[in-house]
Specification:
Length: 212
């Protein structure tokens, strides 16, 4: 295996890429960055200050303040923050500031796993391995519903599915860095897989790509 490797993981919301990224980072002893949290942090700052999500000047200010060492997953994982994040993520100036920070992270001496929407295409086009993780919108909605119910909440499947489809449209349809697989990405459809099967498939892809 090369001394320092970079693994890029992209895909739509709810495909399981976050869990895969964490498992791969643990397995290969790599630093991990969930780049979605950086867009969520910008959205969260705007919401907290009561600024509109299309206020470009304040969004730029917020993006400059994002500190990769202090991303509070608990606060940032709220559903509303994810929705808001996909709105600030269309602002090119915000993307540029966050991408610079993400690229600096990717240079971690021990190597890194980054997951998001544009890692293989924009942030780390030279990554050693690129994975594009997908699952059908219905399966992703079902997983989200199960997660909400496991946490004692309740929600309706149709509403969740509509949210997922809307977020996919926003992420694939934006002009700057839309969600799409890099030409050299390995596609991994997890619709029919549980997390163990997905992890094992991802590990096979990485090992093959690294030639070990
Ligand atoms: O992955 P997560 O759901 O946390 O991402 C929230 C939003 O941030 C996404 O819907 C997307 O619009 C944006 N995002 C992005 N580029 C990334 C990661 C996330 O545009 N690399």
């Amino acid at each position: 295996m090369p001394a320092s490797i970079t693994i890029a993981i992209d895909g739509p919301a709810g495909a399981g890429k976050g869990t895969l990224a964490r498992r791969l980072a643990d397995y290969y002893h790599l630093a991990l960055l969930d780049t979605g949290l950086t867009y969520r942090a910008v959205a969260h700052m705007l919401i907290e200050k009561g600024w509109p999500l299309d206020d470009v000047a304040h969004a730029i200010e917020a993006a400059k303040l994002v500190d990769l060492g202090h991303l509070d997953r608990k606060v940032l994982s709220a559903h509303a923050v994810g929705e808001a994040a996909s709105k600030v993520a269309v602002i090119p100036e915000v993307r540029k500031i966050l991408v610079d920070k993400q690229r600096a992270f990717a240079k971690a001496p021990q190597g890194a796993v980054l997951d998001g929407r544009d890692i293989g295409t924009v942030v780390c086009p030279d990554a050693d391995v690129k994975l594009y993780v997908t699952a059908s919108a219905e399966v992703r909605a079902q997983r989200r519903l199960a997660e909400i119910e496991a946490n004692g909440g309740s929600a309706d499947f149709t509403g969740i599915l509509a949210d997922i489809v809307r977020r996919d449209e926003r992420d694939t349809g934006r002009a700057d860095s839309p969600l799409r697989p890099a030409d050299d990405a390995h596609l991994l459809d997890t619709s029919e897989m549980d997390i163990e099967a997905a992890f094992s498939a991802a590990r096979d892809i990485v090992d093959r790509a690294l030639g070990s």
